[in-house]
Amino acid sequence: xxxxxxxxxxxxxxxxxxxxxxxxxxxxxxxxxxxxxxxxxxxxxxxxxxxxxxxxxxxxxxxxxxxxxxxxxxxxxxxxxxxxxxxxxxxxxxxxxxxxxxxxxxxxxxxxxxxxxxxxxxxxxxxxxxxxxxxxxxxxxxxxxxxxxxxxxxxxxxxxxxxxxxxxxxxxxxxxxxxxxxxxxxxxxxxxxxxxxxxxxxxxxxxxxxxxxxxxxxxxxxxxxxxxxxxxxxxxxxxxxxxxxxxxxxxxxxxxxxxxxxxxxxxxxxxxxxxxxxxxxxxxxxxxxxxxxxxxxxxxxxxxxxxxxxxxxxxxxxxxxx
Amino acid sequence: xxxxxxxxxxxxxxxxxxxxxxxxxxxxxxxxxxxxxxxxxxxxxxxxxxxxxxxxxxxxxxxxxxxxxxxxxxxxxxxxxxxxxxxxxxxxxxxxxxxxxxxxxxxxxxxxxxxxxxxxxxxxxxxxxxxxxxxxxxxxxxxxxxxxxxxxxxxxxxxxxxxxxxxxxxxxxxxxxxxxxxxxxxxxxxxxxxxxxxxxxxxxxxxxxxxxxxxxxxxxxxxxxxxxxxxxxxxxxxxxxxxxxxxxxxxxxxxxxxxxxxxxxxxxxxxxxxxxxxxxxxxxxxxxxxxxxxxxxxxxxxxxxxxxxxxxxxxxxxxxxxxxxxxxxxxxxxxxxxxxxxxxxxxxxxxxxxxxxxxxxxxxxxxxxxxxxxxxxxxxxxxxxxxxxxxxxxxxxxxxxxxxxxxxxxxx
Lengths: 322, 412
Prior knowledge:
The complex is a heterodimer of chains A (322) and B (412).
Chain A: E1 12-23, E2 26-37, E3 41-45, H1 52-60, E4 67-72, E5 85-88, H2 100-110, H3 115-128, H4 144-156, E6 162-166, H5 174-189, E7 193-198, H6 201-207, E8 210-215, E9 218-224, H7 225-230, E10 235-240, E11 256-261, E12 264-270, H8 276-285, E13 290-296, H9 300-308, H10 310-321
Parallel strand pairs in A: 3-7, 3-8, 5-6, 6-7
Antiparallel strand pairs in A: 1-2, 1-4, 8-9, 10-12, 10-13, 11-12
Chain B: H1 12-28, H2 31-38, H3 41-62, E1 65-68, H4 72-85, E2 94-97, H5 100-106, H6 110-116, E3 121-125, E4 130-134, H7 136-154, E5 165-168, H8 173-212, H9 215-221, H10 224-257, H11 271-299, H12 303-327, H13 334-341, H14 346-356, H15 361-388
Parallel strand pairs in B: 1-2, 1-3, 4-5
Antiparallel strand pairs in B: 3-4
Helix pairs in contact in B: 1-10, 3-8, 4-7, 8-10, 8-11, 8-12, 8-14, 10-11, 10-15, 11-12, 11-14, 11-15, 12-13, 12-14, 13-14, 14-15
């Protein structure tokens, strides 16, 4: 997603500097700096246990940092602006005996929405999200996915300026993940700042303007997704019919070769200093038998490996596979 | 979606009200409330079974001394008869001899003796014609032993026993003390049972909340102090509903049973004020204990942990109850003062005072102190909860001493 600077009209929604949190002998978060522009979709990307939840909890004022400062819409104490914030924790929780509309209304009431209005909006939201038939059902009678949707709607019922999701995609099937992505984009389009944590790179890549990559309790990178990807030079992907010939001297010595078939050879290498046009001329003159040529930009995954290291990337992949 | 941010947060009490309203409704329409309503049946049954024994123990413990105010010779003869019979006859009174010289010099009469000292009865007259002064209950209890001892002392037993002259009094110092102690004991016991019942309920309510994982939603939206406050007051509200139901049933049973119902002696402050103070001390005692239990519930993650953590507090509360129960028999003593000041025993000790002493000022001071303690307990519990409980996310559990993921060239 390309960044639309027009959205960031009001400055920063969240600003954190040097956040540190220790739990007994565990250093959970070690000097985190984050700046979330208002109106952005911001991802906190990292493996489990990297400090994502602790960081979010500090940003929301659920726990206080041992060191550092955080400001949400310029306020040091996030509880002071609780009505502006919606939060969906990683461990979803609703009262099992409550009816769906009551549950949504209760969550709204916690954020200052009058109960009757919350109930009215709750019914409306449930209708709009295909759960109109479940309005009067108790939470305990719902499937896990439906209960998650109810909690999500409860997070949004008071129309917050900032929505914080902790691992919002976990536990959702592919269809509901898609719906959630649409919902997040809609929220941002309406001017809501969305910040979410995830260990799934493609969610962050597809949705976010900006990301903070977190590993080992630190944030080695915080900035735009584009800038993260640009840290790795673009690669040329060349497919030729021939394997050898005079044209080979046009390729860098360390070009990676991958033969798919006897008459299909792939070559990967950085863009040469002389540029693509000069390269193309030499390939044509040398009769390489060009089948395709493309310039491939690094993905966020490559950027993550480059920034956070192999171990963190491996942990991320293992969690995704699990 | 249009944003709404006319005011940025709920006040402390508004936030507490949101929690209290939900909890109140949820508990009121739960099975737990039904069992709560049945709760008093247990102490009533146990009390009825233990009543006889308790009553006897109380009579023995409070007043069993008979004052002898006959002639010095008759007194000595009766004491000697008692000494001779004590190994073969049970149920004889302890005796205190008031000699004639003391009676004359201080102008002591049976009435003045009973008003200033804690004697069961005073025996005057002579061995052949004893006169017993005391409350009707005490006279009825001691006239037999006094007649027996008088007959033994005058040598007429077992063929003839003297006729006892009774001089009944409406009340005596000993009777008043004994009666008010009964009222205080009843009040303390009721307070203790209710508090334990409610504190247990508030504890399981919070544990259930943690099991439902709602607690983080609450903690993110409103201060934990408000959560604790709301929960405590919701349960208090539930208890008042329960008390109202019991009062209705009790009143109905009382109206049906009429004079057959047992009655408690009037407390020193009078019934209306005593009941008002009883309700207030019940509320304060519950809030004090409940805030402690909430802190425990907040720290625990499983029912087993709750049981482990709450057991010492329950035992300690039992000790505190015993302390207050013991201290009330010695009004004004350092122990009673300690029981009145120590936050967890203060409601019990002060309720006993309300039964025994007509002073109102100590109650105002005690209530102010208890309110302060409740505020401190709630604040401390909420702070502890925030520091100790929200430690990590789902993935972070069990990563003690390390952080998942490593930085290139960095240490984790």
